[in-house]
Amino acid sequence: MIESFAHKGLAALWNTGRSAKIDSKLHERILRRLDRLDAIERPEEMNLPGFDFHRLQGFKPTRYTVHVNGPWCITFAFENGNAVDVDFEQYH
After folding, report:
1. Which DSSP string corresponds to 67-81?
2. How far apart are the C-alpha atoms of 47 and 60, rounded to whole Å?
3. Is 32 exposed, middle or buried (0-12, 13-18, 19+ CB in 10 A)?
4. Which are the contacts of 22, defined by CB distance < 8 A and separation ≥ 6?
5. d(CA 60, CA 10)
6. d(Cα 25, Cα 82) in Å, to the nearest integer?
7. Distance between CA atoms of 82 and 92, rounded to whole angstroms?
8. What are phi and psi of 79, to 5 degrees?
9. Contact at 8 Å (CB) between 89 and 8?
10. Per-residue pLDDT tens for 45-64?
11. Structure confidence by residue, pLDDT tens digits, 1-22
């Protein structure tokens, strides 16, 4: 389950289905990934075709990422079976 967001625009999109802070062309792709993230019990369950799931190096606690579009990704940590500090960023 998604427990917390680091990105206010991403939280608004998740809670209302809309966000002026994120390009509307990306909303559907982002919501698909958030739906999956909300349903998983282990981070590895995000390893689906097209998501380009992987662990980010150098973060404590461990952070993971899934690709959205171009340089944009959803990043998150995982604690006690929940996604925390879910962010929308260009981490490269």
Report:
1. EEETTEEEEEEEETT
2. 21
3. middle
4. 9, 10, 13, 30, 88
5. 22
6. 27
7. 25
8. -135, 130
9. no
10. 999 999 999 999 999 989 99
11. 999 999 999 999 999 999 999 9
User: What predicted TM-score, i.e. pTM, was given to this entire model?
Assistant: 0.95
Q: What is the residue-averaged pLDDT of the chain? A: 96
* C-alpha count within 13 angstroms, C-beta hemisphere, residue 66: 24
Residues 81, 92: Cα–Cα separation, whole Å: 27
Please give the structure tokens belonging to residue 33. 């990934």
What is the set of domains in the chain, with CATH numbers? 8-89 (3.30.2310.20)
